[in-house]
Amino acid sequence: MKKIYITTFVLATLLLSGCSDDYLDVEQTESISTNDRELFNNNDGASSFVTAIYNKFLNWNLSSFSWNGVSSIASDDADKGSSPGDTGSDKDLMDALTYNASSPSIEEVFNANYEGINRCNQAINIIPQLDKADANVRARLVGESKFLRAFMYFTLVKTYGGVPIIDHLPNPSSEEDRLMQLTRKTPAEVYAFIESDLNDAISALSPKSAYPAAEVGRASKGAAYALLAKVNLYQKNWQKVVDNCDLVTGYSLVSSYADMYKLSGENGPESIFEINGVGSVPAKGIEGYSATQGARGAGGWGWGFNTPSQSLVDAYEAGDVRKNATIIFKGTTLYDGRVVPNTVENDRYNYKAYSSAYTDAWESDVNIRYIRYAEVILIKAEALNELGQTAAAIPLLNQIRNRATLANTSATSQDAVRLAIWKERRLELAFEHDRFFDLVRTGQAKAAFTADNNKTFTVGKHEVFPLPQAFITQATGLSIQNPGYN
Question: Taking residues 105-127, what's their average pLDDT?
Answer without folding.
Answer: 97
